[in-house]
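Late entry, evening session. Most of the bench is empty. Finally got around to the prediction I had been postponing all week. Sequence below, unchanged from the version circulated by S.P.
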Amino acid sequence: MSRTEPTELPAVHESWLPREHPMHRPRHGRRQLTALVCALLFLTAPATTWVFGARAERLENRPLAEFPSITDGWGFLTGLSPWAAENLPFRGTAVRSVHDISQGVFGEQARLESGTHSSPTGTGSDQQQARQPLNENVFPKVIEGRAGWLYLGHDVAYPCTPKRSLDEVIAGLRRWRQVVEASGRKFQLVIAPDKSTMYPANLPPEYAGKDCSSRAREEFWRRLPTATGAIDMRGPLRESADRNGRAIYHDIDTHWTHEGGITMVYQLAERLSPGSTATWKVQPGRQYPHSADIPDLLGQRRTVPIQAYSLAPDGGADHTRFEPSDFHEPLHLKSMPRAGMITEPTRMVGDSFTQFASPYLAATFADIGIVHPEEVAKRPRETAALLAEGDVVTFELSERFVSGGRYDLLDPAVADQVGAVLAADPR
């Protein structure tokens, strides 16, 4: 007698069917409960430990992932995991512990998340890019170069996975120039080159994304300075490095040195007031250790020696002033004007590269306010009010974020919103 297969779904849950029934499926209640408890602990750990005073440590040169908004729909659920992972208060300690074990026991660098990379593995290669669009997560966080040099993986990941096309980027920057100059103000744009742009010789022979990032970099510098009127810092930075006989970027940090910051300030001052730097006197000042940002991604705590400088705009006494700030809260620097200083009120949008220039901006600009690029789109009204205080508006933006179209301020709608406020208070 043949067995008759059921032709309709049973009226009860499959876990309630007899065990011999072909559609019986156990509920796995204990396993499900354990998984749910683990997930709950993971997702609530940042908030729970925060109550007891523990704080998350930022390992990358960007803000920690924010708690997702309930208005994001499905994005609320997908955003919980990165928020919880990045805001775990002991994440930094855990990363460094993994590195210490890997280095001490196995004698090799730990591969954390995407890890480090000095040769192609196929994952994230240009052959794969030809088949399907790449996600930035397939690229290494750190690229190990020659002679111990470390490069931030975003130098490659962002140009290879742009959020905006170069045409859109150029249009966004040109719109900023238009709205600022239409209000009667001067506009200056500086692009801080990536370390991989300035020192490509120290990159490894092969690495994931080499071809696509090289193509993007070449087109970027061929088109953008001319199309937007941006100051091309590559030549002045090379001249400064040759003059001083040392690299103008740190070997294990992604930023330029204080000499790079001074070079940017020189370029800005000469654009605004040609000849004003003739009386400037720059001399070596104090030295201090600075925590390098790239080793943090490898679980290491390493420092680079910082050579700071004194700068006297009139050739007399030192006029520098260093006030630590990440510019997410605007930094205001004011002083009595001296000969050789830019006296026009200046408002600046600048990121971490400007941190290495702020002591020299304070020495040479009598009235300058600085805000971080992320705040422009987040708080357009507050940013507009700040920029409206200036007769000069200056942008310093990082190559990797511009070439990757990652700045929200590149949306022309943001420029228009700020521009409306500037137009209502013309110069």
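Two things to note before I forget:
Confidence is low (pLDDT under 50) at residues 117-132.
The CA atoms of residues 276 and 317 lie 17 Å apart.
Will write this up properly tomorrow.
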